[in-house]
Amino acid sequence: MSENRFDVVIIGSGPGGYVAAIRAAQLGLKVGCVEKRKTLGGTCLNIGCIPSKALLHASEKYEEAKNHFATFGIQVKGLSVDLKQMLAEKDKTVAELTGGVDFLFKKNRITRFSGTGKILDNETVEVTSDDGKAEKVLTKNIIIATGSDVAPLKGVDIDGKTVVTSTEALSLPKVPKHLVIIGGGYIGLEMGSVWRRLGSKVTVVEFMDRITPGMDQDVTKNFTRILKKQGMDIKTSTKVVGVKKTKTGADVKVEPAQGGKSEIISCDVVLLSIGRIPLTIGLGLENVGVALDDRGRVKVNGRFETNVKGIYAIGDVIEGPMLAHKAEDEGMAAAEFIAGHTGYVNPDVIPAVIYTMPEVASVGKTEEQLKEAGINYNVGKFPFSANSRAKTNRATDGFVKILADAKSDRVLGVHIIGVDAGNMIAEAVLAMEFGASAEDIALTCHAHPTHTEAVKEAAMAVDNRAIHM
Questions:
Q1: Residues labelled as active-site residues
Q2: Same domain, 383 and 450
Q3: Residue 18 · residue 53 · CB < 8 Å
Q4: What's the pTM?
Q5: Looking at residue 430, which CATH number applies to its domain?
Q6: pLDDT tier for residue 2 given thresholds of 50, 70 and 90
Q7: What is the pLDDT of residue 245?
């Protein structure tokens, strides 16, 4: 039995877990954190957000040098890919950031427990190390921050070599000649972009009638066109019946989603990327009576507390988009509630970004959602082809789209497809958090020449007064 009793023990050290731990420590609580990996940071830092962005950045540089430098009078000879070095640099970045979290734990005097956590009751967490030794840790509060795992698909057996998940796709030993991606969501399209730039033929198979089905349809339509123009083969309304490994790779059997004639797609590597599921199995939730919803997610109230007093949950294990920044905000809020303060998270203003080239970013409602809800709205749209900075850089694909309430002019949703969209969306998030109108954005001076002027112009277009269109 652990000699000391903690104020809060967090199970999981991903973006939600480690942020909750640090914030709780800042508020004067005695904090323990349970992590089964050797390094802190969870899926995001170890095998998700961070390593994928490292490869996206590196592959973008390669493609830029290969296909675009000559436009600007820069001649490159003997260009090649050193995949080993590229992967090593990715691993170096991961090590630096996970090490940074470890430093922050020490700085904030957070006690780390290495092993798998299981809740015995609302005041006891059992930690089992890799060698099987178990230790009981006493605590006043528990935060479940165990994240998510890859969703399985019937008929697709993952071996980590020929049939892989996003984890293995980050470290393929060579560039595949043909990569088939099952699932047209954020992760699959990002990884597909990496390997396409490095030389792979990429085929995306999506069951729904469009990729990224939750996005604004106007954005999806343009996004699909751009990806196809870049060389991706995208098959929508198509289901995978099964995957059979061969001597040279795998045969992926597909057929129309509504049924019909099947076909075989032969490839080197298959990436399964149809989504993620909350990691709640083995936590002992059924023993303490923590309620789950019909999708296996932990039910929480507005304070992120479950139906069992003293047990909280955040991030991918609860309702909402499975995004690192959502988990971080929820982690801070949960820690603040536990410490007797008032935490805050606005679930309606959480941005989402796809880090392809160009990037896609959105916040708030889509047109389809507004129509379904019967809300009258106005649309302001401005293309990057009319933006001076985008034109100068020869990166004119995409647009900014703003949806505003027809009566109040309050911004209800913003959708951007274009270079640096992931950074530009922050302005829209801030505006919506403050309840801004489209006119507020239109009256805000934006530096020239910048991509963000497209946001201002889109806001002006809501009132049919865009200048450069």
A1: 448
A2: yes
A3: no
A4: 0.95
A5: 3.30.390.30
A6: low
A7: 96
